[in-house]
Design goal:
This protein has about 325 residues and is α/β, with parallel strands linked by helices. The protein has twelve helices and nine strands. It has two domains: about 250 residues, Alpha/Beta hydrolase fold, catalytic domain (Rossmann fold, 3-Layer(aba) Sandwich), CATH 3.40.50; about 55 residues, no CATH class. It has a nine-stranded mixed β-sheet, with helices on both faces.
Length: about 325
């Protein structure tokens, strides 16, 4: 891969990153038994170092990291292709992700980054699915973290789908869209009792939500953005097929999850930056949960006219919010 460094198992003590130099590093690092892909980018290594936990599951963000280049002056971002996603999945096509091994992956990566950048603590930026494993890790390992930032924060997938489904029905009735209502009624109870049933029904719901403007899903645009990435390689197009074989059991594990099953007291600063119009993961659920937690510092910022990916939809407002909370 052009510009990709050899597999790195340990940090050389004379690492340029440790001396405050410009950071632009793509590497495979031996983490928790397998080689995993990390992409580091930033103008100054002495800036806060933030581990990015992407959504999905399986929706690696490293090939879209260039879209957030404006962040480089303020943060050193480390984009991780999770086990079961992106370049890590292509490298390890039989390594099935679970909550347990993903949390161990995060722990080893955090320790690696602390040493690499001579930091006492690392920040976490989590989006969508990434907020599940990110929140658990923040709850369990505050000693390693400077802060936790949740975007498109998932509180409980089942409750999430019940709320977004009810809002969809409400809007369809308000607009007199009987065809849409009939389509949803044909599905039966939503989201269902098992993950496989939920995923099949969710596809129908999301497409209808897209048509009525509740969510933004543009697979063609997403592919176009990935192909423009300096990290893109033709083999990246095989990721979807590989992930399809690795992720079903993770969805089963994720379906009954609830953040309320974990302590409401955090020992790390917690910041939520949410799209106010997010109905893919309803922001109202994140607001309700956030108001119940205790943390050394916490702040909730709602980005107006933004949905599930406010960092891409409203980049200037989002970066301002990021600088505000990290600057604290």
């Amino acid at each position: 891969m052009k510009g990709l460094n050899p597999v790195s198992e340990k940090l050389a003590t004379n690492s340029p990153a440790a001396k405050g130099k410009f950071v632009d590093l793509a590497e495979f690092v031996y983490i928790n038994g397998i080689e995993q892909f990390l992409y580091h980018t930033g103008d100054f290594a002495e800036n806060p170092v933030i581990l990015h936990l992407h959504g999905g599951p399986g929706n690696a963000f490293s090939t879209k990291a260039y879209l957030l280049n404006e962040w480089n002056s303020s943060f050193t971002m480390v984009y991780w292709d999770q086990r079961g996603a992106g370049k890590t999945a292509l490298k390890n096509p039989t390594s099935v992700p679970t909550f347990e091994n993903l949390l161990k992956d995060i722990d080893e990566i955090i320790l690696y980054l602390k040493k690499k950048y001579n930091k006492d603590k690392i920040g976490i930026f989590a989006h969508s699915w990434g907020t599940i494993i990110g929140s658990i890790y923040a709850n369990q390992h505050p000693e390693h973290l400077a802060f936790y930032i949740g975007v498109g924060q998932v509180i409980a997938p089942i409750e999430n789908e019940v709320v977004t489904f009810q809002e969809t029905i409400r809007r369809l009735k308000e607009n007199g869209n009987q065809d849409g209502i009939n389509c949803l009624e044909k599905m039966g109870a939503y989201p269902g009792e098992k993950a496989e049933e939920f995923l099949n029904k969710m596809g129908i719901v999301r497409q209808l939500q897209k048509k009525i403007g509740m969510i933004r899903i543009k697979p063609e645009k997403n592919l176009e953005l990935i192909k423009q990435s300096p990290l893109f390689q033709p083999e990246d197009l095989n990721t979807k097929k590989v992930c399809a074989n690795l992720l079903p059991s993770l969805f089963e594990e994720m379906f009954p999850y609830s953040l309320y099953d974990y302590p409401l007291t955090y020992k790390v600063p917690v910041y939520y930056i949410l799209g106010k119009e997010d109905w893919q993961v309803p922001s109202i659920l994140g607001v309700n949960y956030f108001n119940k937690i205790d943390a050394p510092a916490k702040e909730l910022i709602l980005i107006e006219e933004a949905k599930h990916s406010p960092m891409l939809e409203k980049p200037e407002e989002f970066l301002k919010a990021m600088r505000k909370v990290v600057g604290r």
